[in-house]
Amino acid sequence: MPEEPPYRIEHHSTSDDSSAYRSVDEVKYWDKEDNPIARFRRYITQKGYWNDEKETQWKDQAKKQVMQAFQRAEHKKKPSPEELFNDVYDELPWHLQKQRKEMMDFVRSNPEHYPLKEHAKMGAA
């Protein structure tokens, strides 16, 4: 697989307007012509390794796999809302402990909007 330099087609964030520092034509060129995926597809098509029929079969198979994954995921419980506060700090700072408690109190007091039975078991907040 050839190594290709990345080119960000989209803005950095919702507050970024990349048209201030690059033209629409530049973005279109990279998206359609110099995109590493498009270039690789052209290469393998020219070599006879790929064609429209294989692409259609591959897309159909990929869509089927994605839909099967969605169906499996829909039958699993959602993570506990408390998980929002995990895996960032070794020791959760006091102000985030306070936020977690306030959030969980709010969630528990509004069960019509936050059906916790659909979530994995929560720890003590």
UniProtKB/TrEMBL annotation:
Entry EC number(s): 1.2.4.4
Domain of life: Eukaryota
Gene Ontology MF annotations: branched-chain 2-oxo acid dehydrogenase activity
InterPro entries: Alpha-ketoacid_DH_E1_comp (IPR050771), DH_E1 (IPR001017), THDP-binding (IPR029061)
Protein keywords: Oxidoreductase, Thiamine pyrophosphate, Transit peptide
KW rRNA processing (keyword) present: no
Cofactor(s) the protein needs: thiamine diphosphate
Domain Dehydrogenase E1 component: 7-82
Region of interest (Disordered), ranges: 1-20
Catalytic activity from the UniProt record: N(6)-[(R)-lipoyl]-L-lysyl-[protein] + 3-methyl-2-oxobutanoate + H(+) = N(6)-[(R)-S(8)-2-methylpropanoyldihydrolipoyl]-L-lysyl-[protein] + CO2
Ranges of biased composition (kind: Basic and acidic residues): 1-15
Class in the EC hierarchy, top level: oxidoreductase
GO BP terms in the entry: branched-chain amino acid catabolic process
Pfam families referenced in this protein's UniProt entry, alphabetically: E1_dh (PF00676)
Keyword Membrane: no
Family indicated by similarity: Belongs to the BCKDHA family.
Stored PANTHER family: 2-OXOISOVALERATE DEHYDROGENASE SUBUNIT ALPHA, MITOCHONDRIAL
Role: The branched-chain alpha-keto dehydrogenase complex catalyzes the overall conversion of alpha-keto acids to acyl-CoA and CO(2). It contains multiple copies of three enzymatic components: branched-chain alpha-keto acid decarboxylase (E1), lipoamide acyltransferase (E2) and lipoamide dehydrogenase (E3).
Protein name: 2-oxoisovalerate dehydrogenase subunit alpha
Name of encoding gene: RvY_18587-1
